[in-house]
Amino acid sequence: MDTILQIKDLNVSYGSVAALKGLSFDVKAGEIVVLIGANGAGKTTTLRTISGLVKPKKGEVIFEGKRIDHMEAHKIVYLGISHAPEGRRIFGTLTVHENLILGAYTRKEVDKSTLEWIYNLFPRLKERSKQLAGTLSGGEQQMLAVGRALMSKPRLLLLDEPSLGLSPTLTKIIFDTVKQIRNNGVTILMVEQNAKAALKFANRGYVLEVGKIVLSGTADELSSSPKIVEAYLGKK
Ligand code: ATP
Fold first, then answer.
1. Ligand 1 shell residues, CB under 6 Å
2. What mean pLDDT is reported for the chain?
3. Which positions fall inside the ABC transporter domain (predicted)?
4. Separation of 211 CA from ligand 1 center, angstroms?
5. Could you tell me which residues come within 8 angstroms of residue 182 by beta carbon, excluding any fewer than 6 positions away?
6. Where exactly are the structural domains of the chain?
């Protein structure tokens, strides 16, 4: 499998606070990879650095063989990386449809087949296309955030805590849809606090602790690692 994303020795600081301290990992094309870690471990910072919202002090981000860590965020979207941020950040006073159209801002015109694909992935959004996004339920807003990120037709999709605040049933719907998105040729890198659910459907995972990878493996390996079970999965 080809490597689609390579992170090499990434160091990121906010003022005097070091958030990433020599982070290195990779993602292969066609994988679903999950980043697991405690609050403050640097998971969101990792995604924000890949999408160009935060600039590293040191290190490299390489996408499809090209160095992108110095590039502006909108150019990175154009190259093929899209980010559905934590907290959804949808436009509450616009309709579902308008929010989706805005996701295509890097494309000159809205691609009808992409819109149809997204409405097929999330029939709930289709039903509610004229509803104001601010009145959607938490799960529906999450669907919209993912749908909007897909409008730029990414080859790599970054998802920050897609299951945050969702019931187990909705979490399963979101994760099943993420799998379908991957099956449509989009590679997925996601951050999840819900390690148990994420490791059930991801291919591989990395564990972050204070800005560094401390453990990595296939989802099966991580699910059965005593350290992971104790720290993130809870005793059964
Ligand atoms: P969580 O699971 O709680 O969302 P996380 O693993 O995503 O955590 P980050 O949000 O990447 O962690 O934060 C890593 C560290 O950087 C934390 O110590 C955090 O307080 C700090 N940090 C993040 N954003 C900023 C900022 N804008 N200014 C200052 N410090 C920040």
1. 14, 17, 19, 37, 39-45, 193
2. 91
3. 5-235
4. 10
5. 30, 31, 32, 188
6. 3-80+154-233, 90-153
